[in-house]
Amino acid sequence: MAREVSDLPDLHPHLYQGVRRDPATPRDSLIVSLLPVFVFAAILGGWEAWVRIAEVKRYLLPPPSAVAMALVEEPMRYIDAAVTSLSAALGGLLLATLGAFALGVVMAHSRALERALYPPALLLKVMPIVAVYPLFLIWFGFGIWPRVLIAALITFFPVLVNTVIGLRSIDPAAHDFLHALHASRSQIFWRLRLPSSLPYLFAALRICVPLSLIGAVVAEFLSGASGMGQLILVANGDFDTPALFGAVIVLAGLGVSLTVGVSYVEGRVLDWHDSYRGT
After folding, report:
1. Which residue in 73, 155, 258, 263 has its CB near the most CB atoms, within 10 A?
2. How far apart are CA 256 and CA 54, in angstroms?
3. CA 163 to CA 156: how far, in whole Å?
4. Which superfamily, per CATH, for 73-277?
């Protein structure tokens, strides 16, 4: 008879004590934090100086000051477009993560189902977005759903693969120990498989966050729907290069912010993992 979950030993690795590195001094932390600022400042300063000294045409390469002015003059234009694209991207990422994790759990527990389900999943990976998106427009109209589905389509496969690998990357000794205690499959899943898979899942999310933004923007390119994709198309048609660079900067900022957010959550959730505990 399987024991109750409360009777089983907690095999979560955070119970094991590790030797942590000495904490960095405030001065060292400040220097490390300011290094990227200095690098970006040097790049922008060199860019501004070169454009002005070489008298490069503004429609070819605007100075950073012109890009900053474009962002300051019409902030709501970028904010509205960013919120629209971000909604589609995060909606697609959430849909893909839930679906891929559920399918990954099934595939990780059955080699036969993995062999049966992997080819259709791979088909979704290699399916060209340009060919599929018109079908989504016919089926779901010109609202947000086609963009959500494109973002989901482009992020589904990495989450699925990492889920399957993570759920199978367990400590054999811990697995045998739980079997010896007559633990049920669900108890093994919650006590061992799921904690072991979390590093792989977060690695997939770090990859898929920028991919979801790319999928949403590409969908907006193809349909002309509102969002950052439409803003870029309009700026390109008007030869408004400062606005075009502004849109690229906003997208880059969104991608970096989301990736940093995922990394922060990962660090809080996986503080027990070797890569965060130090040596």
Report:
1. 155
2. 31
3. 11
4. MetI-like (1.10.3720.10)
DSSP 22: P
CA distances from 11 to 134, 162, 171, 179, 237 (A): 49, 21, 10, 13, 59
* Tens-place pLDDT, residues 66-87: 889 989 988 899 999 999 999 9
Q: How confident is the model at residue 91 (pLDDT cuts 50, 70, 90)?
A: very high
> In this predicted model, what pLDDT tens digit does every residue of 30-79 receive, in sequence order?
667 678 788 888 888 888 888 888 888 888 888 888 889 989 988 899 99
3-state secondary structure 66-93: HHHHHHHHCHHHHHHHHHHHHHHHHHHH
Which structure tokens are listed for 165? 């690998």
Domain borders along the chain are 19-56, 73-277
Q: Give the tokens for residue 158.
A: 């990495």
This prediction's pTM: 0.79
Looking at residue 169, what is its pLDDT? 85
Residues composing the chain: 279
As a whole number of angstroms, the distance between CA 230 and CA 236 comes to 10
Residue 225 DSSP class? -
Q: CA-to-CA distance for 248 and 229, rounded, in angstroms?
A: 10
Rounded-to-integer distance, Cα 254 and Cα 248, Å: 10
Q: Would residue 170 be called left, alpha or beta, if left means φ above 0 and alpha means ψ between -120 and 50 degrees?
A: beta
